[in-house]
Design goal:
The structure holds two protein chains of two kinds.
Chain A lengths: L11 H11 L1 H25 L1 H19 L5 E2 L1 E5 L3 H11 L5 E2 L5 H9 L4 E8 L4 E8 L4 E4 L4 E4 L5 E5 L10 E3 L7 H10 L7 E7 L3 E6 L3 E4 L5 H15 L6 E5 L7 E4 L1 H9 L4 H5 L1
Parallel strand pairs in A: 2-5, 6-9, 9-10, 12-13
Antiparallel strand pairs in A: 1-3, 4-5, 6-7, 7-8, 10-11, 11-12, 13-14
Chain B lengths: L2 H19 L2 E7 L3 E9 L17 E10 L3 E2 L2 E2 L2 H19 L5 E6 L5 E10 L7 H10 L9 E13 L2 E4 L9 E12 H13 L3 E7 H9 L2 H6 L1 E6 L4 E7 L2 E8 L3 H11 L4 H11 L12 E4 L10 E4 H26 L8 E5 L8 H9 L3 E3 L18 H11 L12 H19 L1
Parallel strand pairs in B: 1-6, 6-11, 12-17, 17-18
Antiparallel strand pairs in B: 1-2, 2-3, 4-5, 7-10, 8-9, 8-10, 12-13, 13-14, 15-16
Classes of the chains: A alpha/beta, B alpha+beta.
Chain lengths: 288, 441
C-alpha cells in the first residue's frame, strides 16, 4: 500500500476524550466536583495539621484570657445570704473560692450543686451581683424535731431530711424527740400528737415509732402510752380529756394501753398497785 | 410479504424512535465529495403536554453542523474504511463541539449501493367490513416480495397507495367501509455490502446507526416543495460521485435510482482535457465553470497555475474552452438521468417538474441545459429551511443532509406500527411466550 497524504483528523483517542468531555455527568464532575473535592481536601489537611491546631488553641486561649482579665468580669467578694453563721462558714469552706477571680472561670452551676449537697441547705441560688459580688442566697432547712438514732441525735426538718447532728438531746431542748424506725417520715403526725399532748408537755420525753406503724408516747418519769395505729389523735384526745377530768396520768402508772379504742387499759406500777389495793377506791376507777 | 421484511422495517422504525426519544441525533451525509454532520435536538413540545411523548411530530433544531472533505468514499460507497472513519470523526467532533453535546445515535444516508425500486401489490379481504389497523398490517404482510437477491437489503418499504374495492388513491383507508383492501407498495433495495460497511464504520466511531435512508430520497424530501411532492416530480441530486434520482407522487417516493456519474467526472475531464492538476481543475470548475457558452466567454481568459515547476510561462484558457469540456459530460449525465426517468414511467405522472439539487446543480446554466435534455419544467432546488441551520449549509449541496433531518423528524413509515396479523406470527408469538415463561420461572 502506498503511503498517502492524509487530511488532518482527530485521533481515535482524542475523539473519545472529546466525547467523554462532552458527557454531561463527566463534565459536571470535573468542573464542579473536582474543585470542591480539592478545596475540601485542602481544608481538611489544614485543620488536621497539629501545628495549626496548636496555633488555633493558643489564639483561643489568648482571647479568653484577655476577656477574663476584664475588670467588669472580675468577682471580688462572696456574699452569702439567708444562711446562719456556721452554715455560711461551711459554705465558704466548701467553695474555697480564690478571689478575686474572673466570672468566666467560675462554674455557677457547679457552685450551686456543691452548696445544694450540704445537709442544712434546702434551696440555693447563685448569681452575679453588682460591684463584682457573687451572691449566694441560701434557704436553710428549719429543724422541727430531733430524731434519736442508735448513737446520735439528728435534727430533721418537716420532710424528715436531716439538717444536722447535735451531741446530746439537751443541745436543743425546744425540739421534740422522736425515735424508732421510720419516725422521720411521719414528723407531721408526730407534731400533731405532741400538740394534742400539750397539757402534759412538761412530762413528755418523746414519741417512739413502733413497728413502723404506730406511736408510743413516752412520758416522764416512767410512763408509756401506747397509741393505736388508726386515729391516734382521737385516742390521745380522749386520754387528755381523762387527764383533765381525773388527772389519770398523775397516778402511779407504768403504761397506758389505748390501742383498742373500746377498751382502754392502764398498767399500774408495783407501788401504785399496792396503794390501790391498800386503799379504798371507787369501783368504776378499778374497771379502768 | 414475508414477515422478515415486516419485522426488519419495524425494528428500524423502533430504533429510530428510540434514538429520537433521547432527544439528540446526528445526521451523517456520507457523500463522495464531503461528509456533513448535523446535530439535531428534538425538543419536546412543552406547551402541549399531550404531545410531549410523540417526538415524531416535534420540531427539531440544528444545534451543530460541520462539513469535511470526504476521504475513502467513491461512488457513494466506502472504499477505505479507516480513511472514512477519520473523516467521519472529524465531522462529528466538530459538530459536537459546536453543539456542546455528545451524540450517540446517527442517522446516515447512502448515496451509492445501486438502489433498485420495486412496485409491490398486496390484497386482502377486509375482516369486519370496516378497515381497521389489523387489516392494514395484514395487507402489508400480504404483499408478495420479489426475489431481490440474498446480498441486497430492503431499505425502504413504503405503502404508496391504498385501494378499497374499486376506489383507489386512498392514503389512509382506516375506518372506511369496503370488502377488499389493496396496497401498492414501493420497495427499495440496495446492495448489502455498502450498508454493512457504513454500519461498521459508524460503529467504529462509537456511535450507533439509528436509521438509514437513500440519499436521493432524502434530497427529494428537502428539495421538493409540497405541491411537487403531491402532484409528482423528480428530484435529481447531482453529487460528486453519483447522481441520485427519485420520483415523488402523492407525497410518497415511488421510484429511486442512481447514476454512477457526478461532479468528479467533470473535474477529471477538465484535468485531463485541459492538462492541469486535479486540485486546480476542481477550483477552476467551481469558480469559472458553466455549461452554456455565450460570445463573451471566448474573451474571458482563465489563468491556470502551472502543473510543473520548470514550465515558466503561465497558461491561459478561455472560459469557452472550459465550458466545451464540461458540457458534454454534463449532457451525458443528464441523458443518463433522462433514460432512467423514461424507464420509470415518469411521463405518466400529472406533474412533470424536475428539480435539480446537490452540489453539481450549482453549475451556471445547468437549468437551460437540463430543460433541453430532460424536456420538462426544470428548476434548481435548494433545501428547505430548517431551524438553526447555518447559512453555510443552506446550499444545494446540503439537500441530502437537510432531507435526512426531515426524514428523521417526519418519517413516513408509521404503518409499520400496526400489528402483524396473528396467523402469520402465531407460532412466533407462542415461542416468545414459552421463552418468557422459561426465563422467568
Amino acid at each position: 500500500m502506498l503511503p498517502v497524504r492524509r487530511d488532518p483528523a482527530p485521533s481515535r483517542i482524542k475523539y473519545r476524550l472529546e466525547r467523554l468531555w462532552l458527557t454531561p455527568l463527566i463534565r459536571r464532575t470535573v468542573r464542579t466536583g473536582l474543585p470542591l473535592l480539592a478545596l475540601a481536601a485542602l481544608l481538611g489537611a489544614t485543620i488536621a495539621h497539629p501545628r495549626v491546631q496548636a496555633e488555633v488553641d493558643a489564639a483561643v486561649a489568648a482571647v479568653s484570657t484577655a476577656l477574663a482579665a476584664h475588670p467588669d468580669l472580675t468577682v471580688t467578694a462572696l456574699d452569702i445570704q439567708g444562711a446562719s453563721a456556721p452554715l455560711a462558714a461551711e459554705i465558704e469552706r466548701r467553695l474555697a473560692l480564690d478571689l478575686p477571680q474572673s466570672a468566666l472561670d467560675l462554674d455557677l452551676t457547679g457552685l450551686r450543686a456543691a452548696i445544694a449537697l450540704l445537709e442544712p441547705v434546702a434551696d440555693v441560688e447563685a448569681r452575679y451581683g453588682t460591684d463584682g459580688r457573687l451572691t449566694v442566697v441560701v434557704k436553710e432547712r428549719v429543724p422541727v424535731a430531733i430524731l434519736k438514732g442508735p448513737d446520735r441525735f439528728d435534727l430533721i426538718d418537716p420532710g424528715g431530711v436531716r439538717t444536722g447532728t447535735i451531741p446530746h438531746r439537751l443541745a436543743r431542748p425546744d425540739l421534740p424527740l422522736l425515735a424508732g424506725v421510720d419516725a422521720g417520715l411521719h414528723v407531721a403526725e408526730a407534731k400533731r400528737l405532741l400538740a394534742l399532748a400539750a397539757p402534759v408537755k412538761r412530762r413528755i420525753r418523746g414519741l417512739v415509732r413502733v413497728g413502723t406503724r404506730r406511736w408510743n408516747l413516752v412520758l416522764a418519769p416512767d410512763l408509756t402510752v401506747l397509741l393505736p395505729e388508726n386515729a391516734p389523735e382521737a385516742a390521745l384526745r380522749r386520754l387528755m380529756a381523762l387527764q383533765a377530768a381525773k388527772a389519770l396520768l398523775d397516778r402511779d402508772l407504768v403504761a397506758g394501753e389505748l390501742r383498742d379504742p373500746a377498751r382502754p387499759v392502764v398498767r399500774l406500777s408495783p407501788g401504785g398497785l399496792a396503794a390501790v389495793l391498800g386503799t379504798d377506791i371507787p369501783p368504776e376507777e378499778g374497771a379502768l | 410479504m414475508s414477515s422478515v421484511l415486516f419485522e426488519s422495517q419495524r425494528a428500524m422504525r423502533q430504533r429510530r424512535e428510540a434514538a429520537l426519544r433521547r432527544g439528540l441525533v446526528a445526521i451523517l451525509d456520507i457523500g463522495s465529495t464531503k461528509i456533513a454532520c448535523l446535530v439535531l435536538q428534538f425538543a419536546p413540545d412543552r406547551a402541549d403536554p399531550a404531545r410531549r411523548t410523540s417526538l415524531t411530530h416535534g420540531a427539531f433544531r440544528v444545534v451543530g453542523a460541520a462539513t469535511t472533505r470526504s476521504r475513502g468514499v467513491r461512488y457513494g460507497e466506502i472504499t477505505a474504511m479507516e480513511e472514512t472513519e477519520r473523516a467521519i470523526r472529524t465531522a462529528v467532533q466538530a459538530a459536537q463541539k459546536m453543539a456542546g453535546l455528545r451524540v450517540d445515535h446517527a442517522i446516515a444516508c447512502l448515496s451509492g449501493g445501486a438502489p433498485r425500486s420495486y412496485g409491490l401489490t398486496g390484497s386482502v379481504r377486509v375482516e369486519n367490513g370496516e378497515v381497521a389497523e389489523p387489516d392494514i398490517g395484514h395487507v402489508l404482510t400480504a404483499c408478495d416480495v420479489p426475489d431481490y437477491g440474498a446480498d441486497r437489503e430492503a431499505l425502504h418499504a413504503l405503502p404508496v397507495n391504498f385501494a378499497l374495492d374499486d376506489r383507489s388513491g386512498l392514503s389512509d383507508p382506516r375506518g372506511q367501509i369496503g370488502a377488499r383492501l389493496t396496497v401498492d407498495m414501493h420497495l427499495l433495495t440496495v446492495d448489502g455490502i455498502p450498508v454493512h460497511n457504513l454500519l461498521h464504520c459508524i460503529r467504529r466511531c462509537d456511535m450507533e446507526l439509528a436509521g438509514l435512508a437513500v440519499s436521493s430520497y432524502a434530497a427529494g424530501l428537502s428539495a421538493l416543495v409540497e405541491d411537487e411532492q403531491e402532484l409528482g416530480a423528480a428530484c435529481v441530486d447531482i453529487g460528486g460521485g453519483t447522481t441520485g434520482l427519485s420520483i415523488f407522487a402523492k407525497r410518497q417516493m415511488i421510484f429511486a435510482d442512481c447514476v454512477a456519474m457526478g461532479g468528479h467526472h467533470l473535474t477529471s475531464d477538465i484535468c485531463q482535457g485541459l492538462e492541469m492538476p486535479y486540485a486546480t481543475a476542481e477550483r477552476i470548475k467551481t469558480l469559472h465553470g458553466g455549461v452554456v457558452a455565450t460570445g463573451a466567454d471566448d474573451r474571458d481568459f482563465i489563468e491556470i497555475p502551472s502543473a510543473f515547476e520548470e514550465e515558466a510561462e503561465r497558461r491561459q484558457i478561455t472560459r469557452a474552452e472550459l465550458i466545451g469540456v464540461m458540457r458534454p459530460r454534463m449532457e451525458e449525465i443528464l441523458e443518463e438521468v433522462r433514460a432512467r426517468l423514461d424507464a420509470s414511467g415518469f411521463e405518466c405522472l400529472p406533474g412533470q417538474r424536475v428539480v435539480l439539487t446537490g452540489g453539481g446543480a450549482q453549475v451556471p446554466g445547468l437549468e437551460t441545459l437540463a430543460a433541453r435534455i430532460l424536456g420538462r419544467n426544470v428548476r434548481i432546488g435548494k433545501p428547505l429551511r430548517v431551524q438553526g441551520l447555518p447559512q453555510a449549509a443552506t446550499g444545494t449541496a446540503f439537500a441530502a443532509a437537510v432531507g435526512l433531518a426531515l426524514f428523521s423528524s417526519h418519517p413516513q413509515d408509521e404503518c409499520w406500527d400496526f400489528e402483524m396479523p396473528a396467523d402469520r406470527i402465531g407460532s412466533r408469538r407462542m415461542r416468545r411466550a414459552i421463552r418468557w415463561i422459561r426465563q422467568n420461572w
